[in-house]
Every structure is written in structure tokens, then in C-alpha cells.
Amino acid sequence: MDPVEPWIDGDAVRRLARQLMTPPRRERKESTDDAGFGPGFEGFISSAPAADPFPAENEPAKPFLATPAAPDAPPPPEVPKVDLPPREPLLARLGRFREWLIQQLDAKGAFVLERDGEPVLDDADFTKLHFLARSLAQAYRPVKGEVGNVHVKVGAEAYLVVVPVDTAFGRLVLGAVLPKPLDAATVEVVADALKRAAQPGRK
Amino acid sequence: MISIAVSSQKGGVGKTTVSINLAHAFARAGLRTLLVDADPQGSVGLSLTRQSRLLSGFYDYLADPGIPFDKILVPTRLETFTLVASGQAGDYEVSGGPTGAHLSRVRSFLRTVEARGYDICLIDTPAGLFGLTADVICSCDAVLVPQQAEPLGIRSVPKMLEGLNRLRVIHPSLVVLGVILTMVQQDMEESRDSVAALRNLLPEELMIRTLVPRDPLFVKASARGLPVGVMEDGEGANAVFDALRAEIEAKLVPN
Predict the structure, then answer these.
(1) B195 touching A, CB under 8 A?
(2) Total-model pTM
């Protein structure tokens, strides 16, 4: 008796299994080094709880639309659009969106909050930044007709970039930790990508 | 600390039996082990303590950020083995909550467990790979998937693989320890055929070699609230779960 056939598509199962067994992505190691401090710095205590990799600095948030490009600066490289297959569940699409941020914009991580501040897509490394992202999003007053963002420096070469986006699921707030703030064109691309990721599945 | 979700697409496949006894095996090996009952039916608590229905537990922690962590810990006679029952938050909507709704609290829970010095945290999840179970899997280092060695049980394998692949998009570093076959009956042709068929269908790396037999001793152990290994004539069951523990440890050793 064959308990598998004819109930199961063996080829499909094997394909899914192979996909599942691809090696996991290695977690990025948190770096506790900051400018001017190396491994020899004696101020770190090894038994202390892990230091926040991006300790907040006392720099006020700078609400702005986008960094204006210098007149003679070359145009920023075009960022390829995120690939979002239709019919995937929302969280899978948001996961793809985050992977795209990491690969295309060198994001260290990203989370998405819903209107009430609850995480829709969380990132364990940056849970502490939820409150800050929510506060920035609430304080931000967009210029009509333009996509904007606010950003705040949260560590050496680390900016929390907050992009509120109106989607089919309501207002979502993207919090992305990036090595530098985004220019206007890239903000548009990111906002559009999140909006498309949060679209209900299409036929 | 290593956190392992014990999860399956279907119910009744032996998740709780595997969770209890695998946790006991880790604890017997000297590892500080926390076994968490994330099933609102409270199966783990039912098995291991008769007063479980009165205990605060995992769902209370999820619902109340102010609850002291110590309040939900249940020590056992084995010093290295501690439980967290499912808890009193009886109105907690598990299946109704969307995936992602409780991710923060689950991750907060695991960070606290790690800070307390536990070596292993096993979480027995509700059936299905969505809602809170998905949040637990997406918060854990690894997932172990019990699967009945029966023809009807095999039909859920494609859905199970699809579900895990979706979760891996959200949690790319999730280690899939593998599928562990449960309720194996060597004296029944259909059960032996199911084992052979799954081993033929799935890659070797995805199949746990250890088999968990169907045995009346497991039912008796659950009724008395004990891991099967402490029952009279339970040494054989100890050997099964010691082998499972060793196999899992080998998979978790970094290359």
C-alpha cells in the first residue's frame, strides 16, 4: 500500500522540502564598537547585559521631506523595485519588502507598525525603537501631495528612518535602520514598495 | 540559550508527548530547561501538574506586561526542569489573532527566559502554523515538527512545508530541525509503510532518525502527570528521547 500516492504531488513536496532546507541566513552580529573604541577598550564589562548596538544620541529629530540634492551632485542610483508575487499572504509580502530594504538599501533592520503602534512586522534587534518611530510619525506633518519621512540618528552610521504610508490596510509606519538618510526619490520608491506589499492579494 | 518550537500542521500528532519528554531528556542531561505550554488547551500543564488550571502562565504573560516572570514559573522535582503552564487568560483568542500580533511579547518572553540563564526553552504550540503559533516559531531559534506515521497524517505534509516556508521568509534564520515521526507501530503494515514513504519523499536532512512509538505507557504517564521516563518500565522511553536529544544537539552544533 502506498500511503503517499495519489494524495500528494511528490515533486511539489520535494521542492518545498529543498527550499526549507536551504541554510539559514546567519544573523548579523551586534557590534558594540563605536567610533574611537576598539576591542581593547577596558570600559566594556563582559558580564553586563548586551549593550544596545545603537545607543540613542541626544540629537533632536529633523523633520524634513528629503535631503535636497546638491545642485551638481549626480542623480542617485535607481533602486530596483521589490518583487512581490500576487496571492502571497501579507506577512510574507512584508517579509520580502524587508529583505529588499536590506539588500538594496543596506538596511540593518526594519519594522512596520500599524496605526495603533502595534507591530505588524517586527524586528527583534530594534524593538526598542518602536516608541520613537511612533512618536516621530505622530509629530510629522507631511506636505500635501508628497511622500515624506523623518529620520533621527540612533548610533554611529545608523539612522532610524520613519516613513508613514497610507495603504489598503490603513496607515502603516515603516521604521528602517539605515546607514544614511534617504533622498527624495528613494523615499518615494520605498513608500511605493510598502504600499504594494500591503496590497490585498491580487488575482 | 536555544529556543525550540514544537509545532505541527495538525493536532493530535504527539506534540505534547514529544515536548514533555524531550524537555525531560534535556533536563536529565543537566541542561537548565524550561518547558512552555503555549496551547490554550493546557495539555502540558494537565500532564505535569494537577493544579495547572489555577496557575498563571504563558497567556497571562502575553496579556499583561506587568506580570512578574517568577509568577509563571513552576518548578519540578528535577532541579533543572521548570514549567510554564498555559495560564489563566482563558478568553485569549488564539486562532483569531493575526500572525504578528503577539510577536513582540513572545520575543520579550524569550529574552527574559534567556536572561534567567536557561539553556533550553521548549515551547509546545497549538496546532496549525498561523496566529500565535506562527509568532512563536518566528521568535524561536528552531522548530521541530511531530508527524503521525499514518496515511491520513501524511496528507498534511505539503501544507506543513508550505507553512514553514512562509514563516522562513519572515524569520530567515529559523533552523528546521526536522520531522519526527510519532505513534509508530512496527506491528502494523500501514504504519511501517508510512514511515518508509515519508523517508522516501522527504530529504534525509529533514527527517529525524529517531522514531517515537505508539505506546500505552505514554497515555498512562500523561494521566499521572509524569514524563514517561519516570514511569515503571519507562527506561525504554528514556532511551528514545535521549536519542532524540542527541540527534537535535548534533543538528544545532554550528558548522
Answers:
(1) no
(2) 0.62
